[in-house]
Structures
1.
Amino acid sequence: MLKKVLLLALALLSFAGCSKKEEGPIKVGALFAVTGPAAFLGEPERNTAQMVIDEINSKGGIKGRKLQLVVYDTMGDTTKAVQLANKLIKNDKVVAIIGPSTTGESMAVIPVVEKEQVPLISCSAGIKITDPVKKWVFKTAQNDSLAVNRIYEHLQQKKQTKVAILTVSDGFGSSGREQLKEQAAKNGITIVLDETYGPKDTDMSAQLTKIRGSQAQAIICWGTNPGPAVVAKNARQLGITMPLFMSHGVSSRKFIELAGDAAEGLKLPSGKVIVAGLLPDTDPQKKALLSYVSSYKKSFNTEGDHFGGHAWDAVMLLKGAIERGGSNAATIRDQLEKTTQFPGIGGMFSYSATDHAGLGKDAFALVEISKKDWVLVK
Amino acid sequence: MLFEEILQYTLSGLSNGAIYALIGIGFSIIYNATGIINFAQGEFVMLGGMLTLFFMNLLQLPLWAAVPCAVAVSAVAGLLFERLAIKPLRRPTPINLVIITIGGSILIRGLAMLLWGKDTHALQPFSGEEPIAIANATILPQHIWILMITMLIIGINKYFFYHTISGKAMRACSYNSKASSLVGIDVRRMVLFSFVISSAMGAMAGIIVAPLTMTSYDVGIMLGLKGFCAAIIGGMSSGLATVAGGLILGVLESLGAGLISSGYKDAIAFIILLLILFVRPQGLFGKADAERV
């Protein structure tokens, strides 16, 4: 008797579970480093993802179904990221995962989603994430190599071929350093000096003194705040006049605030968010950029940056895939891969079976800091 | 050309070293009074910078008023730290105390993060940003502030420990706390004093360095460790030996980064630390029985 009741209960429960899945919201998982050292990425990403999902839901969802975002904070920790990815897939039964925020976490999560066959749209930049192409893994953040190319292209135009590089000794910096060295020969650039600094260093004047005494015609510094601001200040102190390039890692107002007067005249490749208003009207991304900037400002009272933009792109790409007919993990993946010429925040996305990064070098604009603001370099 | 570069390395190194020295003296004052290595010292450096910004931004105080406020609040934080974390311990063993100071540092850092967020902030330089040239090498006005204020604090420190009753009492405690309490010195109060003084000094170091290095809730970790190295090189003396230790560390770091490889900059500090601990545990200048305080 008891057995029968239990069986009945089980049947009822699973039935209830089934029907709920059909009518309930589409669950989308998200892993962001909201706290910890990579919080400057995770926080705007979480805010943006939630904001976009709310916007979609307030307009009636996708094909009548609402989206539900399940966000977990990885604290920038790879072990946590893997645990939480499993939790999203097995407990929350999400159809796709957005994030994680950093390359290290993304690499750790990839084996999980490949095994469980759930699409992952990473918001981190590392080239290894989608090279070689993995069936279930996409990404929205621009490859470092695109940013490097943008700088080298500009140097070629200016006929400056000897550069000194100064990179931070963390994941972002070493990936940049690798790309800077790899792309140099192809672009006719010689790296005359290869210096590094620690992520917590507070004085880089020794490295810059060495660079000042070298043959270099330009300096390329690769890091995220606050290091590059110290580099800019030290360079100004040492009276260095050769052009100083920064990476897209500092393309936020915070950097201008930190570096103060020393930021004047610095150039950097950046996603187009910060110069959205300056873009020509012919730019296909302009509409998306302006709408993102204004709704972020309305919701959070600070300016949206391109880190949040990665999450915007991820949600919107997912939305497109679901609109085109994706309803479960496998069909969403197939539809994601068919995305063509989608104007996002990071650039124009076109995924294919051989390219899951989806961006070209037009994803970066070269900007200069002038009078504490951004201007486009022609 | 090379001379010019070495001069620049040395000047940069000296100004960094002055900061290490100031933090290092904070370590040794507490060590001498209590036998504790206070690993929360770096957090007071952070508090100095962050509190100054807090007073300037939120209460709109000018710099000259914000600095004393920040130092005073940090000193109170040091006082509370001693009263709430160190004093209640019944049977203090060195390992317990060390773990408590590490715990305290994590707590302070966490509170600062919750209060002020995770962003890095810049503090305006005290007097302009125009570089000053010294024979082809350049320094900033802020570097001069750092050197002057460090010298001033060390001078006051010296006067306090050798020419005031309280200072002499603290020295007495460091030589022999049992005998001191027998002649009527309140040893617990001297321990409290040592925390207050060293947290105020740490805070001052954090303030004068913030315009150059910027400040954030987690800036104390590395600066604290460098200060600790300086104190070890100086043999945990709270006098000129630790100052020399800080300056030597700063210059070697800068020369090492410039002439050998910048990748090893931090390694240099820790290699020196290990060498000193292995070869001359009494410090670079110490006789076997070093003068402390």
Note: Residues 132 and 147 of chain B are 14 Å apart (CA to CA).
2.
Amino acid sequence: MNDTRTPPVGKLPAPVRTLRDRGGLRHLGLVGALVLLCLVGLVTRPDTFATSSNLVTLLALASTIGVITVGMTFVIIGGGIDLSVGSVMALASVWATTVATQSYGPWVMALCALLVGTATGAVSGLLISYGRMVPFIATLAMMAAASGLAQRLSDRRTQLVAPENDAIVALSTTRVLGLPILVYIFAAVVAAGWVLLNRTTFGRRTYAVGGNAEAARLAGIDVRKHTVLLYALSGLCCGIAALIIMARTTAGSSTHGYLYELDAIAAVIIGGTLLTGGRGTIIGSILGLLVFTVITNLFILNGLDTSDQLIAKGLIIVAAVLLQQRTANTG
Amino acid sequence: MSHSPGRRGFLFGGAVIGGGLLASACTSNASNDEKSASAPALAGTDNEKPGQKVVIGFSAPAADHGWIAAIAKNAEATAKLYSDVEFKAVEPTNDINQQIAAVESLIDAKVGALVILPNDGQQLNQVARKASDAGIPVVNLDRVFPDKLSYRTWIGGDNYGMGVAAGHYIGAKLKEKGVAEPVILEIQGIATLPLTQDRSKGFADALKTYGFTVTAQQDAQFTVQSGTDVATNLLQAHKKIDALWNHDDDQGVGVLAAIKEANRNEFFMVGGAGSANAMREIKSGSSVLEATVTYSPSMASSAVKLARLIAQGKGMSDLVEQGVPQSITLASETITKDNVDTYLPLGFES
Amino acid sequence: MPDIKDPLLVMSGIVKQFPGVRALDGVDLEVLPGEVHCLLGQNGAGKSTLIKTLAGAHQPDEGVIRLGGEEVRLTGPVAAIRLGISTIYQELDLVDGLSVADNVFLGHEKARFGFTRTADAHRAASELLTRLGHGEIPPATEVGSLPPAGKQVVSMARALSHEARLIVMDEPSAALAHDEVDNLFRTIRELTAQGVAVVYISHRLEEIREIGDRVTVLKDGRTVAVGLPADTPTREIVSLMTGRDVEHVFPARPAPGSHEGRAEVLRVEGLSVPGVFQDVSFAVREGEIVGLAGLVGSGRSEILEAVYGARRASGKVLVDGEPVRGVSSAVRLGLGLAPEERKAQALLLEESVARNITLGGLARYARLGWLDRGRELADAGRQIDELGIRPADPGRPVRTLSGGNQQKAVLARWLVDRRRLLLLDEPTRGVDVGARADLYAVIRRLADEGIGVLLVSSEIPEVLGLADRVLVIRDGRNVHESDARELDEHRVLDLIMEGSAL
């Protein structure tokens, strides 16, 4: 018998510690961009940019889309896309602030937002996995439907959080160790998302389903069920985001979350997640989002125009993706 | 568009009251003005009595904003007040083509008069002209058609005047306080709209008379959430603010939330449009929001009334003229704690 | 017309350096007009780089390319095509949604002022197809509806439409069944008879002997033999490729009948998928390798899929007496599949070797969904070691491994967590000769450890050499079952072809 195997045992390189955590290096471009932007901030507005209150502001501003971005990262790594996030968040905020819901108090309002988000997400997931619809189309339909339902429910009015339910608004106004509670919620979602993606079978299966759905299926993974769970997770994140936006604006409205899907997708993509699925990180997405948030902050601090902000955003997306391709090819 | 019956009843109730009060407010204002003038023969006040039956067609953009929603509701509610009016509203839309088609369908239905709030005055001009040519009087609501042959009467708000009112309130107040070089911020709606530019121009012009300028300006897309985000950043950028004008009370909900969150109260704020929320806030006296300058959707109620009068060949009874004027620009009024009770019933729920 | 002795193509001293790798390190190649020149070498020997250089996709760092005696520079794919060099890759670059004629003239459409001239294109395509001996393919057919063999003919017609003098074919037979390969050879002969030279790449030595005129062998980026006659003995060629002699390709088998009395791992009764296969019954015992022989399209792969629960079928599939209901239940009962399309159906190419190995048994490392990554890595490392996956780096992306090592990674997936039965579909496709022997040994060792194996292969010698028992499938029916040692290649071919050949 012919044996080409090099003598076994002992020849194996010392236990390789990391399977894929080339993370630090991978995000070098984004961290660099963020540092650069912060330098610009320090130079142009030395008095305000680096203050603790501005940092709190940045985190509070990032928290809404941030939570949605975590869900979006899962969906995109899993090979899908969720265009409905903005309107699902709006729907959840509206549903939670109807007169009827508000009469049950803040806990029920919060629960309502989470349930509405999760349920709508699950419906998208069912349409995609069992209805065999393309994710782009299914969530596009959900985007339209959820938005319409939000308008119908609210009668297109801005629904204020009633004074007796101020506990919701307190998420934004109450500070613990100098930070509003909603920043902790944001941090908790990011941490939970990271753990779920990197340390659990759910996360591993997400990479597998997005990387090669057929291989995942033949390896015994229930791809359809997993897909439903992914969109439900994204919906849950929208529900949490709805809670945050209700706290920040003191209102539920069908206009909430307008174009959030684009911001969230852009953040995920410049964060290094492949739009085709199978690869990506939560940290990258959050860094990508922070880049956007800091740009907006810088522009307003310096009294610049919204149109210029949009130009800067577009350029950053292109630059980040080009940079990513270069590092990905050499790495 | 359909609504759940319960809410519909509630809202219409409010709007009816609004429309009615507006009518009386207008009349009373007008008669006050005329008191000193030598009164010609009174035209008689039988305008409200049922006359010949009129079908009024109505077309407006789809509501994505409390103000527009209030427009549609006010129009319908006012029409309901008259037994001689049949109100025919077409499906509201934000698509120019669909609105053109909708107006065409009303022309084909040979309505007696048309009330149109166009998505875009330029682009709907042609279809409005077609209606006028067909002998249907058009009441142009707010966004003006460029061609005067396209409409019989224009009624709308005064965006420039709104800015002027806000500028005067802020200017006078700061002058009174003796603030030198005040920090004055402005949060616009959608910056690209001509109406926003008019408002800002009026604001800047009025401030100039006091020797003041706008320190910083940002736009907030007319949405609550954008209002919060923009205001949060602006409050960071300016540690000490003297006055803030927010163009729109809808997005003002978000602006106020951001101010509350940042725990700031060293300045005062003026709103725009005149929503019920804003008025309640003003009334409470504990808010930074001290005043709001109106751009009231009650104009839709007036427009329907005007359409009815035109179709029935009547004039406005408080004027000498036998017909309805060609153009009516509503003054932007300033609502403060002192007069808020008068306006509160007129406020629209954003 | 150049003298027949004048070479059409001469490549000498070609060097191509990539970051960290010297892919070509002084390669020579000489091709005569009208000959079929075979290129042999293990995976990683530099074959792909060499053909990409010929196709103009890579620019060599050193060396000279002469075509028809003149030195040429292949600055890009278009330049290569203009000079008459066409390359037909393994993954045919055809547009499925376009017609045969559209594909043939893709990029140089028969058009006037931008309007395509369909009738002209159809006529011209028909002529080209006839030249290839396949006038029966209608030029208006959508390419997506053609079988792989038909697509290949279209690719060749496209090459001819560029007036190719040299056609490079990268493993053209890999996707074809036995009779289709014969057809391919006929087509190639049509080409060479017209003076076109063919550079032919394949792992199958039998094919090379049949179609090839001369052979060039590559090893580690160098030419180790130029222009050998195609009838050079296998052993000599293999030793050139591997640098060693291959003696026993197949591992020793236990004596016939030694599995009788051992427990049945798998029992299949009356399994049918309408229109694909009917009423197939068989059993696999512990430690036994059962081979399914048959043509592509005879239903063998589909039988495997049905056993695995990946395809709806009527009839019974029992694993240790328990019925299989879908893939999840198959995996739970101890089945593992190494599918035919390794890259498309089994591997997460971007992921590490370790993650690919543990994918099938993830639940093993999880407590309440929480992964124990240390244990996971340790298990993966042990499999890498036991199966001899090289390089032995669990963190390396699996796409960087050779075909044989990728296949081992797929096998390893089912070994971390002890399987009762492995279903292997074409386990050696795209695996070079040296590595094949290694894979055979691994498969036999697993059987010796008591695992049942159900093997599908297009290569009859592989089925006969590796399996204990063989089932011959023809037109979706099990037409013969016997001990592998009672059969030879001829007999199996007879059984496979019988009926359909008449």
Note: The first strand of chain A starts at residue 159 and ends at 160.
3.
Amino acid sequence: MLDVKNLQVSFKLGRKRLDICSDVSFSLHQGKVLGLIGESGSGKTVTCKALLDLLPENADIEADHLRFRGQDLLELKQSEFDQLRGTEMVMIFQDPVGSFNPVKTVGWHFRHAGKRRQDGFSSKREMMKAAEEALRQVEIGNPMEALSKYPHQLSGGMLQRCLIALTLFCKPSLIIADEPTTNLDNLVERQIIDIFDKLRHEIDASFIFITHDMVIAEQISDEVAVMYAGQIVEHGNTAEIMANPRHPYTKALIRTARELEGDVEFLTEIPGDVTSGLELRDKCRFGPRCPLHEESCDSHIEMREIEDHGLVRCIKAHISENQA
Amino acid sequence: MSSILEFRDTVVTFKSGSGLFSRLGGRDARSFNAVDHVSLNVRKGEILGIVGESGSGKTTICKAALGFHSISGGTITEDGKPVSSNDGSLQMVFQDPLSSLNPRQTIARSLEVPLRLSHASKDKIDHRIDELLGDVGLSSQFRNRYPHELSGGQLQRLAIARALATNPRVLFADEAVSKLDVSVRAQVLNLLKKLRDRYNLTIVFVTHDLHVARFLCDRIAVMYFGKLLELGPTREVYNNPCHPYTTELLGTLNKGRMLQASTRDIFNPLTDDVRACRYLSRCQHVMAECHELHPEQRSCGPDHSVACYLYDHKELVQ
């Protein structure tokens, strides 16, 4: 359905060029959920915005191909892309308040989106019925009331649910959700995650779910891709990676998440921080923080396939857990 | 353990619509108690976690102790004396380290400002800066850098160092790790725990992350719309939550259980009755007295108290 091959994104800043993502490749099948995990600055949002052509002017996107349902997105004209974005491919942003027009009602947003929907509606009544249906899907008890409200009259969780309903209403085949729960409280976060979990079984769209939380990714995704400093470092089946991570960075992330759930005196730290990896173009970017680092790591490292597991960008990935 | 900071019946009120334009427009002033008659003691050397959703008043109560908000009822005392906000014995670390530092001051200069309050000599201050940086695990190379040159984790360490500069007795950390990346979060959490052990520091840790609270805190206070609902030792609260809200909140940690999306309205401070129990509209166990008055704190276990009428009727508690 979606096939990304060798995507590179860089920003021009004056005379300098800043590489944000390099060598990002993944493919996503119909109806599957990909969890894209990474810290801030790892390039996960930039990757997704590149797919939707939402990056600012100074961004430079290069790729072997970005194929979406057989079309190469890079070859599309601007007008053709505009047709696709918001109907076939949609994105849910982190901040629900900023995604709505504050002086228009929620219903207005649905009417606006409805005009763009490709199959169209024969009547206004039919459109509103579809809107109510979408709101019911995200467990809003009284859709008529929600449609008549202005964004400031709804709570953050309600608004995020309305936004999800709005994207469902467009009947897209690809939904990208960029940390949709980060700004929300625990209880609301849990509700939203449960709604996503339910939706992915109910509707036939593919999801890319961006998060930095391993626990959330584990619950709702079929496969996960872990990003670090602009590269995907591990990609494979969720259950397999959670149980048996191969890349040292993934291992550390999962260990910390597990330790917080259990009872420990001190947490295991990863020394240093992500900025140490950004300048290392042709070396292992996790190198400066890696416990297994040695000289042979300082060369260009390709993703390598590990049987029954997935792709890992580490030359020591074959070393099993007890040896490491 | 002796208590170091005590909130007794503390009230912080926010008013809306009391400004000139509202009065000219003939609108009524409305007020809301962001912290509503909260009694809480902080013990020496402990890490007290305050958990709750946004709007529960957990930050407000900390800011009230530091004098950022004036209290409109009750008392806040430090060792029996009313808190004074200018002696540096209470310090706060904020959520966003970048905006709490002056972008045009070097790291050394940022740390120097609070140190000069002690009127120490220049050499001593210089020495102390290195000591503080060492305490939070930063090398003295950072002295001449500017905040924008540091990463989020380093900035948060710096913010902690600056809070420690005045040798505080109580450190308030307001969501100090929620803006940090997962891989550096562990570093800062461990740091806070180590600092507590090294200096016998008392820490009040405000968070909405229940995993973090369980890892770091000795005792947990659960707040909901200005009210303290439950207070007890961490292990006790997590294993044996007494208030229905705590049970609901901790239920989010249980991955297996699907949470019923709550279609019931949450408490609305401007329209709902503020005398009744705050949790009334979401509670499953509503009784007649719940509509009358918000319950007082009552004991429900060793060192464990809860504000809920359920504990007057022992037979109802499973």
Note: Chain A touches chain B through 39 residues (CB under 8 Å).
4.
Amino acid sequence: MIFIKDLYKYYGTRRAVGPLSVEIGKGEIVGLLGLNGAGKTTTLRILACDLLPSAGSVTVDGLDVSLEPEKVRAKIGYLPDTPPVYDEMKVGRFLRFAAELRGASRTALNRLVGEALEQTALTEVEDTPISALSHGYRQRVGIAQAVVHQPKLVVLDEPSSGLDPVQIKDMRRLVRGIGGERTVIVSSHNLPEISEMCDRLLVIGDGQIVAAGTESELVSRWMSGLTLEVTARCKDGSDAERVASELRAVPGVTRVDAQRAKEAGARIASFSVGAERDVRAELASSIVAAGHELLGLGRSERELENVFARLAKGVGLAQNAPLTDGSVNDSEAA
Amino acid sequence: MNATWLILKRELGAYVRSPLGSVIIAVSLLVDGIFFYTQSLSERLLSGEALQRFFYNASGVTTVAALVLSFRLIAEERQTKTFTLLNTSPVSDREIVLGKFFSAFCMVALLTLLSVYMPLMLFVNGKVSVGHILVGYLGLLLIGAAATAIGLFASALTRYQVLAAIVGAVIIGVMFVFWMLAKVADPPISDFVAAMSFHHVNFQPFQFGILELRGVAYYVAVTYFFLLAATKVLEARRWR
């Protein structure tokens, strides 16, 4: 669906993106992850034909964005970081305008707008002026205008930006719903927001793809060992220090750090356990055998966050090659 | 062309839904009316002379109104970031520029035509040629179109509306005073500079009710040039 090869974009003499090469297949939901200023927005703007590349080729569904931008734009729905909505228009009228602008036929207009309203849960505010909507609703209108003409590729630049936790959850569901037949690219600098809604993650740093893969692939490739979180209720006469020393004795465990208890209650202790391999079964057996009660055992939620932070900042990249999976071939750049 | 029509309709809708359009029309008509009363009706003048003064003043009012209506057209959308919607739709830059231009020009035409009651008042006590009125209004529409195109070009240059207004005013101001430069320059430069004058040489025939092809060609050419320049500015921005 998307082929990017040796893409470069310069703003004056400053290199914003490049060299960047990547392939994205039809129906994939891909997350573009990077810190602010890493080149995410520039890459997405080039894909959406808002900007032209300085060098390299970008093709969408077989069409080159530099040579046939108008044909490419007809296949794309784009939500920039600020939703491009006209405040004075009502939601329904605005979506009709956006659909017509993207070449939707008059006969299909009502159906397309109705479907977009339904998909983004905006039906109830169809006749409300956009100026009267909250930030979350405006963001949804932004997504609705990107999908109203049923494009093959949907590009969303930080769709969860500024949303509260409930809205972020809704946004995840919404983005998942948009997928299916369509290819979706979502950018973010916030890992938890994006990891759950995407099939594959591309980590971008200094204008280059520094890593690509699924969440587990990234973790297994880039984490030196695992981080596990353990919560247990110590048996009578025991304490957290003693449990920690028992955990340290489990083969494969490299470190045990006591943490603030994850649950309220007497004699409850939580630990962050570093391990060379997956030692969850051994840890569970050890705790139970020692007479403690195991309340929780799992991989650390911060695991991927740490990987992302390291990759985005370029920490440790020089010692770890190759950088990317088979679909990304700009490893020499990093 | 469908996209041009869509953009034109949306812009006209925005004028209707916001007070901007009606305020500009009201202020223009008020100023036109004050000029007409103080300079055409308060003195004993021949009807043709009164009409000529009316068109002279109305040309200034139309130019300013056209600039005020047009300098925001693209700059405002860049500022509010709604321009991305147009920029990423399968619409050419030419269609965007034409849609924006015709929307502002429709407003200019509306405010110009709403002033028609003033010259018609001269029929009460005077003798006025209908041809004079028609030619005068054609001149107002042409100078309004040229000023709109210049304002639109300025609007394409920057995202700051105030800066766009200043750039547009400077372009029109410089073109306006070309006739002064023509006075101090030697031929053939003086002839060329005089021919490029935004108002003096090119609008005067319309004022007097004389339809000259030169004036028509000048305003059409200025309009075309600045619309083309605005299109090229938009195209160039994609490479930045």
Note: The mean pLDDT of chain A is 85.
